[in-house]
Design goal:
alpha+beta; Heat Shock Protein 90; 2 domains; 5-stranded mixed beta sheet; 64% helix; rod-shaped
Length: 394
Amino acid sequence: MTTKSLRPHRDDVLLAVFSVLAGLVFWSLGVYSSGNRHLLPDWAALVPLVALGSMELLRRTMPSVTLIVGTLGVIADQFTVGSLATVVIFTDLMYAAVVYGKPSMARRLPVSTGLITVIVTIASVAWLRTPQALLIGVVTGIVSFAPALTGATLRNHREAAVAARLRAEQTALLAEMDRSQAVVAERARMARELHDMVANHLSAIAIHSTAALSIDTAATSREALGVIRENSVQGLAEMRRLIGLLREAGAGQEPVAVPSLDGLDALVGQARTNGSASGLDFVLHDERPPGEQTAAPVELAAYRIVQESLTNALKHAAPGTVTIRVAHTDGLLTVGVDSPYGDRPGPRAPGSGAGLIGMRERTELLGGAFTAGRSGAVWQVRATLPAEEKAVEA
């Protein structure tokens, strides 16, 4: 224990000085708690008084020591003329031992002092056999059990307040963590949505603008400009839709439609137009049963996976046929895209790999499975999503 921790509290110093001075005043006036005892001279009552008064300086830092010294002092006081101040100081030391002592001491003292009070009361009545003997038990309870019980009550309230504060701090910390995680998740969702919406159109614009610059003919330039214009208009519409999603409710924005698998025909048709200059053809096999219902988040994820796969095909696929298959069986929605793998002539659009990451994240967030990789001369993308609404909510 450091020297600084043993430094008495200011209130304890004042309490010690006031207690000793009060005892000296009572002694000088001849006010004794047991004036009929003459085993020792009158001044002997000052020894327990000063000893217990000095213990007030350590009541917070060394409660076990002060209680032991206080108990011995109050016992010694019984062999002198007695001082009321000594008894009062002992009650405060008992109280401080419960409040500032170890938890084990705080639990034991109220029980032990209560038992001592009961034993003293029974022994006094049995020894003196007078009703006045009950007063000895009452005094014992007032001096020992009452301060111990008071200290235990105060300590319990303090510990409950500390526990409540810690719970409040932990709740606030968890709330902040949840908020941070929600912000990160929302940013990731926005990044996926922005990439999937814009990358397809920008890739087509990059490919056709590069072709127009490489092949300097009027027909090529005219075709490229037409594709560029179409993708620019559609990309702008998608950006407006995203901005509408980000605006707060009630901002005067019209509700925007969320892409679904019903728009795959238009998506594949657009990819067919964009990829014609690179020798690519696109074929869609929609094997979903007619009227089969799929949760909206699942349909959006499947649509974005197909859209990103087509974008990657426009960037990297060799000339040939890109096959898209969508099926709904046994409560699962499966998406598969096969693209020719190999060298391709003409311009290429650069890739960053963010598309594959976004497709995997979309699938895993819904509890599905995603794979992408080369199988011979084919680049395969496979996604399996739970089609039921309850699977999405889990």
